[in-house]
Amino acid sequence: MSKIALITGATSGIGEACASLFASYRYNLILTGRRTERLNQLAQDLKLQFGVEIITLTLDVRNKSEVETALQTLGDDWKAVDVLINNAGLSQGLDPIQDGNTDDWDTMIDTNVKGLLYVTKIVSNWMILRKAGHIVNLGSIAGKEVYQNGNVYCATKFAVDALNKAMRIDLLPYGIKVSAIHPGAVETEFSEVRFKGDTERAKQVYAGYLPLVAQDIAETIWFMVSRPKHVNINDLVITPLAQASAIYWNKG
């Protein structure tokens, strides 16, 4: 059987780009997301283009029972996951801590931290049985440096950074690779989600410079995953040329 990649948050952006790229390398895919129509369309397109096998799972990673039910009902062949890409994540709002919306805080913590944990707990145990596998965690430059009004989003991505380091240690005896990639500005639906559909405000985030695109991140993840067996890329920060840090920019 071909290798298998499980990608969370596959309906858009980096997750979708990873799905397309891994399918082009003949990986069979388990794709998760909240939007059934988008998942099914992506699966249909990739099957037609690359002839790979794909299972789609409509679920919200915040919902532990949904995650457990969906993953545990997979057949044994599909549980032999070679690569887990913990991509599902989001930001909500950009307010100072004293004005923050607590519902937004819950959404970010439940998605970016707890959702990643729910999926990883199950899939890592499958990998332990085989003493093989690679987990790639999607962090952010916001998990390396705090910026104004980033507060809770930054906290969740700092948590991803810490969890990635902890996973690397905990899974070391089992020969499982663990990596994190921390992108700077990537033009996807990220800012539209953060600003709750305000497309004009979202566009301003990427004005005056050339941001990264989802394909840039997918190709870098593929590089990490395709290294020889003895090589593990633990941690990687990637930004557009115009972005030197979370707060320093060269905008035209």
Can you describe what's shown?
- This protein is an alpha/beta fold and 252 residues long.
- It has a single domain (4-238), classed as Rossmann fold (3-Layer(aba) Sandwich), CATH 3.40.50.
- It is 43% helix and 14% strand.
- It is built from eight helices and seven strands, in the order E-H-E-H-E-H-E-H-E-H-E-H-H-H-E.
- The protein has a seven-stranded parallel β-sheet with strand order 3-2-1-4-5-6-7, sandwiched between helices.
- Strand 5, helix 5 and strand 6 (177-183) form a beta-alpha-beta unit.
- The longest helix has 29 residues, at 102-130.
- The chain starts with a strand and ends in a 14-residue tail after the last strand.
- The relative contact order is 0.14.
- The mean pLDDT is 95.
- Keywords: Oxidoreductase.
- It comes from Arcticibacter svalbardensis MN12-7.
- GO terms for molecular function: oxidoreductase activity, acting on the CH-OH group of donors, NAD or NADP as acceptor.
- This is Oxidoreductase, short chain dehydrogenase/reductase family.
- Belongs to the short-chain dehydrogenases/reductases (SDR) family.
Primary descriptors:
Sc_DH/Rdtase_CS, globular, alpha/beta, 7-stranded parallel β-sheet, 8 helices, 43% helix, Rossmann fold, Oxidoreductase, short chain dehydrogenase/reductase family, 252 residues, NAD(P)-bd_dom_sf
